[in-house]
UniProtKB/TrEMBL annotation:
Pfam families: PAD_porph
Species of provenance: Streptomyces katrae
GO biological process: putrescine biosynthetic process
Keyword hit for Phosphoprotein: no
Record's keyword terms, sorted: Hydrolase
Top-level taxon of origin: Bacteria
Database matches in InterPro entries: Peptidyl-Arg-deiminase_porph, TAT_signal
UniProt keyword Chloroplast, yes or no: no
Molecular-function GO terms, alphabetical: agmatine deiminase activity; protein-arginine deiminase activity
Cross-referenced PROSITE patterns: TAT (PS51318)
Name of the protein described by the UniProt record: Peptide ABC transporter permease
N-terminal signal peptide: none
Length: 388
């Protein structure tokens, strides 16, 4: 799970995933025991020697070997929307599989359904069990060294501050790295992939204080300490910090529903309507201001594009937790995969904007309303493995 609900009506109830249950507490306690039971295998993966060279997280637009995803099967988490979100995950997987291989992690009990929905173009594997579908947060962050080397880091996923069961998801990053046969190291920070945006050039990252400089992830750590750990993990020189929004959704406001890097020195921000006054609209405008004033490591002013968000009164969903983020798109080989939400004018304009910003790529817009009702989007449920 990755992102927040953007541009909700003022006074809306608690955001993404309000149907969390008491099972979360059980999952949190179980995490330590499950990790301990894996002991030697996980430790061996974590301490394999890294390849030579300076590793950094590349931009998402580099060539991918494959995309990693996860198939949800917990009715205690998703309730009556489980079947719908499973269909949305399968749709996303099938669409990406037109452009590059997709590996879909599924629990043994739901593997047959995953294969039936996703079809033969998607590889379903059962050796990496999961709690939920938010691979951007639970999965490994792959790094390259520019000399053919590939490794992975884990961000020590803790269920967004121990808010949801994550005994299996806490181990997904290391297990995927082992499956891919690459060295794996735990980062010196607790967080999620959706909380951090990288430009791929080893210069700035983007992140929200509300998510990472937060006692539910990194108790007692200062912003400077967290920034140092992020820079070391991602191979970056600095972090552009946004204030974010605390406590309004389970992620405490991830950056990848609002602001994204287009290239080194270039970014975009999904903008609210001029009439939107909720906390997320205010946060988006502030992110645009901060980025517009930011510079690269070379001192060049950041060029910032605007991506207009939809009118929540015109989208299909009436769910107050709905995430209608075009910015939560995923780049795969030759394509941009994004959402469409039923505001015909805004959907068309978003497609045109993304086509202009990513020339030469096919823009695919998908109806992912069931996933959006859970407060997430396409970037939230995908994780790229770059070509070394």
């Amino acid at each position: 799970m990755n992102d927040h609900v953007v541009n909700r009506p003022e006074g809306a109830a608690m955001g993404r995933r309000r149907f969390l249950t008491a099972a979360a507490a059980t999952g949190i306690v179980a995490t330590a025991g499950l990790a301990a039971s894996e002991g030697p295998a996980r430790a061996a993966s974590a301490h394999r020697p890294a390849a030579a060279g300076t590793f950094r997280v590349p931009a998402e637009d580099v060539r991918h070997t494959r995309t990693w995803m996860a198939f949800p099967d917990s009715s205690s988490i998703w309730g009556r929307t489980l079947s719908g979100v499973q269909s949305d995950i399968a749709l996303i997987a099938r669409t990406i599989a037109k452009y590059e291989p997709v590996y879909l992690c599924a629990n043994s009990a739901s593997a047959a359904k995953a294969r039936s929905l996703a079809g033969p173009s998607v590889t379903v594997i059962t050796s990496i069990p999961v709690d939920d579908c938010w691979m951007r947060d639970s999965g490994p962050v792959f790094r390259t060294d520019g000399a053919g080397g590939l490794d992975a880091i884990g961000l020590n996923f803790n269920g967004w501050g121990n808010k949801q069961a994550h005994a299996r998801d806490a181990l997904v990053a290391g297990r995927i790295a082992a499956h891919a046969g690459v060295p794996f190291t735990a980062a010196g920070v607790v967080g999620e992939g959706g909380a951090v945006e990288q430009d791929g050039a080893g210069t700035p990252l983007m992140a929200t204080r509300s998510s990472l400089v937060n006692g539910n992830r990194n108790p007692g750590a200062s912003q400077a300490q967290i920034e140092a750990a992020l820079r070391a993990a991602y191979g970056a020189s600095e972090v552009i910090w946004f204030d974010g929004v605390v406590g309004q959704d389970i992620t405490d406001d991830h950056v990848d529903a609002t602001s994204r890097f287009l290239a080194p020195g270039r970014a975009l921000v999904q903008m609210p309507l001029a009439t939107d006054t909720d906390v997320y609209a205010k946060d988006a405008r502030k992110q645009y201001q901060v980025l517009s004033a930011a510079t690269t490591a070379g001192g060049t002013r950041m060029a910032v594009e605007k991506l207009q968000g939809p009118d929540y009164d015109r989208i299909r969903s009436t769910n107050r937790d709905f995430l209608a983020s075009y910015a939560n798109y995923y780049l795969c080989n030759g394509a941009v995969i994004t959402g469409q939400f039923g505001d015909a004018g805004a959907d068309t304009a978003a497609r045109a904007t993304l086509a202009r910003l990513y020339p030469g790529r096919t823009v695919e817009q998908l109806d992912i309303d069931r996933l959006g009702t859970g407060g997430g989007g396409i970037h939230c449920v995908t994780q790229q493995q770059p070509v070394p």
